[in-house]
Structures are given as C-alpha cells and as structure tokens.
C-alpha cells in the first residue's frame, strides 16, 4: 500500500498557502491547514478548494491554531501526522512590523521555533521523518552587501520582520544540523499574483488602477517609488517550495527571477495597460515610508535552476498585466476584442 502524502501548512489562508494547497491537491496530497479564529471569515483564497470534511474523499482539512500557541501546534501535529510541513504563516508586512515589532517577532521568529520544537519531539518519539519548509525572505539581505544576492550573501536585515526571518532561517539550519531534521530554507524574493494582499505595493497599485478606471477612486497614495524589487509570480514560487522537499538532502535555495524593477517601472507598465499616465494619479504620503528601507533586491536563482530544475515562467511585464487584468475583471471591466476599458470620467468621492 502506498503511503498517504500528507502536508500540514501554516498560513494556508495567505497568498502562497492557497496556491500551494492547490498544487499539492493536484498531486494527490491530503492537505491540512492551520487557520486562525477570526470574527469574520478569512478563507476567501481557499474557499474554491474547500471540501466538506463529512464527504467521503475530502482531502482538505482545516484546524484552528496559531503560531503563537505552541500547545495547539503540538496537538495538531500529533493528530495530523504529516509527512511534509510548510511554515508559511507570518505577520508578513514589513511596514507593519515597525508598528507591531513584538507581535511580528513572536509569530515569525519564535513561532518557527515552536513549530520546530514540536516537529523535533514528534520525530524523536515516533521515528517518523517529517520534511520541513521554512518560508525565508529576500528581506533578510536588507542593506545591500552584494548583488545579485545568492545563498552565501551575508544577511543585513532592516526591519523587525526581517530580523525575525533571519532568526527563523538560522534556527531552521540549527535544527537540521542538531537533530537530523530534513529542513529547508527557501529564500524567496517578492512574488505576486491577483491573490496578493491588498496592502503590498503591487496589488495596491493594480487594485487602485481598476478602481480609478471604474470611477471609484481619484488618487493613489504611495511612499518610496525608487526601491527596486525582484518580482516573480507566486504560482511559480510555491512549486519551488515543494521541489526543495523532494530532494535527497535538505538545503537552502534562493528563488528569484534575476531581474529587478523599481516601483516607478511597475506603475509605468500597469497604467500603460489602460492608456493612463500614473503621474496624474499618484501622490506621495510619508506614512508609507519605512524607518529603514531596503533599496535594492535582485536574486540569483542559479542554484535552484541547477539542483531543482526550477525556473520562473512569467516575465515582469506579464506579471503586471495579469494582475491588472484580474483587478479590472473584479470591477466588471473586461477588455473586449483586445481594447482597453475607457476611463469613467465621473469620479466618485475619494475613499
Ligand atoms: P500572507 O500575508 O498572504 O499570508 C500570511 C499567512 O499567515 C496568512 O494565512 C495568515 O493568516 C497567517 N498568519 C498570520 N499570523 C499568524 C499567526 N500568528 N499564526 C498562524 N498564522 C498566521 O503571506 P504570503 O502568502 O505572501 O507569504 C507566505 C510566507 O512567505 C510568509 O511567511 C511570508 O513572510 C513569506 N514570504 C513571502 C514573500 C512574498 O513575496 N509573498 C517573499 C518571501 C517570504 P490570516 O489569513 O488569518 O491573516
Ligand atoms: P516588501 O513588499 O516590503 O518588499 O515585502 P511591499 O510590497 O510592501 O513593498 C515593496 C516596496 O514598495 C515600497 N512602497 C510601498 N509599499 C507598500 N506596501 N505600500 C506603499 O504604499 C508603498 N509605496 C512604496 C516599499 O517601501 C518597498 O520598498 C514583501 C512581503 O511579502 C514580505 O513578507 C516578503 O518577505 C518580501 O516581500 C520579500
């Protein structure tokens, strides 16, 4: 009898959790996700794959828990008995991490340790090997030490979020070396999609653009437009997470496109789609600046290409366009016969 492939995800309700769940379900996995109790539903991104657990053959299961609650994490691990764990849960907003540093570090840093401790005990007690993926970030590189950034570039984190991710990275390495844990760090550069959280800059731009075209918004307020990011497509990136856990040996990998673009360039491509000039709509608001900024990120994915056979499939321009199209569609503005929707001159009140 073949063993059931059973994955446990933290952060299943997030952008990456939703794409990874789809990917794993397509490959025959039973998928278990940890969700937080909230007063309104927070499962929008996975509602389309949710199955009633009472129905025979259901392969997606949700469990209430939190990275700040170690007891519950242990209980879920014991109940699920996963073969693979993907630790995607995080307070993942860099700007917000300056406002809520303790909470961010507790979730991102100590939360990872809590999960690793649970895995370590579970593995030692049962002898069952669990493969562990840690969602590391290019934010760990922070202040530029070298470009392009590789697995050996030194970290210089520039936010509470990034400091916590550096801790999570090294504690994952330490548990791999100390307890023979199959644990991998993905060092993922920014990856976006129509499911990207609405307050990250890419989605903030494409969503605002669609609202401007629909006449629901007049201005878009942004912070630093000169920062440069290596932006890829989230669907490509979750595949890399899975590939890391299918290798013979655990290791750490940079996942990136190898290209970098400024926020200005993102605005150029996005607004060009609807024949508008972004300079007519974008205003500066200092509240979106960070006390310490990460100015330039560009990753070198050579190791992932060589060892995992992984490559990005979507270009920068394609990524911007697919996000713009999705937000226009969400506003009921579907381009017909290749023509772009016309801007509604009747602007509603600014929200
Ligand atoms: P999102 O912000 O979209 O999702 C974060 C997820 O974490 C949500 O499911 C959220 O739940 C959950 N979460 C938040 N706090 C807790 C907590 N205390 N306990 C348990 N779960 C919690 O992030 P992404 O999907 O974009 O990113 C996934 C991971 O990858 C994160 O760890 C992020 O830091 C990291 N990363 C992301 C990159 C990117 O460009 N997207 C690049 C590099 C790393 P809820 O829905 O209830 O809020
Ligand atoms: P980042 O993503 O900080 O790179 O972290 P974000 O989209 O928030 O910022 C990218 C750059 O855009 C600048 N910026 C603004 N950012 C936001 N959010 N809102 C604005 O109005 C705005 N104006 C300019 C920022 O200053 C920054 O330079 C993301 C998250 O997903 C992390 O969890 C992940 O680890 C990293 O990517 C890789």
CATH superfamily of the domain at 6-193 and 230-255: NAD(P)-binding Rossmann-like Domain
Query: CATH fold name of the domain at 6-193 and 230-255, please?
Result: Rossmann fold
Order of helices and strands: EHEEHEHHEHEEHEEEHEEHEHH
Our measurement of the CA-to-CA distance between the termini, rounded to an integer number of angstroms, reads: 58 Å
Structural class: alpha/beta
Q: In angstroms, what is the radius of gyration?
A: 21 Å
Assigned CATH class of the domain at 6-193 and 230-255: Alpha Beta
Task: Count up the helices.
Answer: 10
Bound molecules: NADPH dihydro-nicotinamide-adenine-dinucleotide phosphate, guanosine-5'-diphosphate-rhamnose
Low-confidence stretches: 345-351
Proportion of residues in helical segments: 25-40%
Q: Please outline the major beta sheet.
A: 7 strands, parallel
What's the β-strand tally? 13
What is the 3D shape?
globular
**How much strand?**
5-15%
The overall pLDDT average reads: 95
Can you tell me the CATH architecture of the domain at 6-193 and 230-255? 3-Layer(aba) Sandwich
GO molecular function: GDP-mannose 4,6-dehydratase activity
Organism: Stenomitos frigidus AS-A4
Family: Belongs to the NAD(P)-dependent epimerase/dehydratase family. GDP-mannose 4,6-dehydratase subfamily.
Catalytic activity: GDP-alpha-D-mannose = GDP-4-dehydro-alpha-D-rhamnose + H2O
């Amino acid at each position: 009898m073949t063993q059931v492939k059973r994955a446990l995800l933290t952060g299943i309700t997030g952008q990456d959790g939703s794409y990874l769940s789809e990917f794993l379900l397509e490959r025959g996995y039973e998928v278990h996700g940890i969700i937080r109790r909230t007063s309104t539903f927070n499962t929008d991104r996975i509602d389309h794959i949710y199955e009633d657990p009472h129905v025979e053959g259901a392969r997606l299961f949700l469990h209430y828990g939190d990275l700040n609650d170690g007891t519950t994490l242990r209980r879920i691990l014991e109940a699920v008995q996963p073969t693979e764990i993907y630790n995607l849960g995080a307070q993942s907003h860099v700007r917000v991490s300056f406002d809520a540093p303790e909470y961010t570090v507790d979730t991102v840093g100590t939360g990872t340790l809590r999960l690793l401790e649970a895995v370590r005990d579970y593995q030692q007690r049962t002898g069952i090997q669990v493969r562990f993926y840690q969602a590391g970030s290019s934010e760990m590189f922070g202040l530029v030490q070298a470009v392009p950034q590789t697995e050996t570039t030194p970290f210089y984190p520039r936010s509470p979020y990034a400091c916590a991710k550096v801790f999570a990275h090294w504690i994952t390495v330490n548990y791999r070396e100390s307890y023979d844990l199959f644990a991998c760090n993905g060092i993922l550069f920014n990856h976006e999609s129509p499911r990207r959280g609405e307050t990250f800059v890419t989605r903030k731009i494409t969503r605002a653009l669609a609202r401007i075209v629909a006449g629901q918004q007049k201005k878009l307020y942004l912070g630093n437009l000169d920062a440069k990011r290596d932006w890829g497509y989230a669907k490509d990136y979750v595949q890399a997470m899975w590939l890391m856990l299918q290798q013979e040996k655990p290791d750490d990998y940079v996942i990136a496109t190898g290209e970098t673009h400024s926020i200005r360039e993102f605005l150029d491509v996005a607004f060009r789609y609807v024949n508008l000039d972004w300079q007519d709509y974008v205003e500066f608001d200092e509240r979106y600046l960070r006390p310490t900024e990460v100015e330039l990120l560009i990753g070198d994915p050579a190791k992932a290409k060589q060892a995992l056979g992984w490559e990005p499939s979507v270009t920068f321009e394609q990524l911007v366009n697919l996000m713009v199209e999705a937000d226009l569609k969400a506003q009921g503005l579907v381009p017909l016969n290749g023509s772009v929707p016309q801007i509604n001159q009747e602007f509603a009140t600014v929200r």
